[in-house]
Amino acid sequence: MKVQVVIAFVTMVLASPLLAQQGDASRGERDFRVCAPCHSLEPDRNMTGPSLAGLWGRKAGSLPSFERYSDALKSSGIIWDDRSLDGWLTDPERMVPDNEMPFNGIKDARERGDLLAFLKEATKPGAAPQQNAQAQTGGMGGMGGMMRGGNDTNLKNLEPARQVKAITYCHDSYRVTTANGKTRHFWERNLRFMTDSSRDGPQSGVPAIMPAGMLGDRAAVIFAAPEEITKMIEQSC
Ligand code: HEC
């Protein structure tokens, strides 16, 4: 009995690095849904986490365009390959204590194998454009929009209901007027102010308002630059 358990364990350990080759990439593409809100596959398109384009063979924490790496990841000395990625995805905190990826890991070895099989292809140089074409036409089983996390909607040329014309502040409330002439009230703790300076960010002077949260009482106003925030908010009751 004991011997069987040991054999099963050894088989699992030995098999896991191989799973990247053996995994099912189309199942892995679906598994990537949990990563997609934070990671893009397009070169240098960084979100909460760094772009994963060109990941295999890259030194951990070394993408020059990503400015938010933890010291822990930068000094880990890891080179990303089948084996190190399998360890990272099993339990990031155990592999690199104090890293800043808010993710608990995937305990299922088959799921990691599938995900790595997908990532290995999708992160190869030149693989990304096809990926996106697929995502935009809904080729990823209709998950395209959701997979892209809503983080990278282009905020230029939004419909008038999403273009902010004026914001006033009174006591504990904001009033937000949009380009379609409508005004909405928000309790001050329910409105968030953000910036997006990337090419997908709003036009300067035309912040975007986007719904946030599940209840419909919250929203985020996204500006092109931080200095626009106080300039736009007028104290008036
Ligand atoms: C909530 C956001 C979030 C989720 C979800 C997430 N990550 Fe991350 N990821 C990050 C952040 C932030 C970092 C940088 C961590 C650091 O510097 O310590 C990171 C780092 C990484 C790195 C190292 C990249 C490099 O350049 O060294 C890899 C690989 C990675 N993530 C893969 C994944 C995969 C695969 C998934 C899905 C199973 C995933 N991540 C889920 C935010 C996330």
Provide a quick synopsis of the model:
By secondary structure, the chain is α/β, with parallel strands linked by helices. Helices cover 33% and strands 16% of the residues. The site of heme C has 25 residues, from α3 and α4.
The rounded Rg comes to 22 Å
Our measurement of the CA-to-CA distance between the termini, rounded to an integer number of angstroms, reads 77 Å
CATH superfamily of the largest domain: Cytochrome c-like domain
For the sheet with most strands, the description reads: 4 strands, mixed
**Individual helix count:** 9
Number of strands: 7
CATH architecture of the largest domain: Orthogonal Bundle
Helix content: 25-40%
- Side by side, the strands of the main sheet go 3-2-1-7
General form: elongated
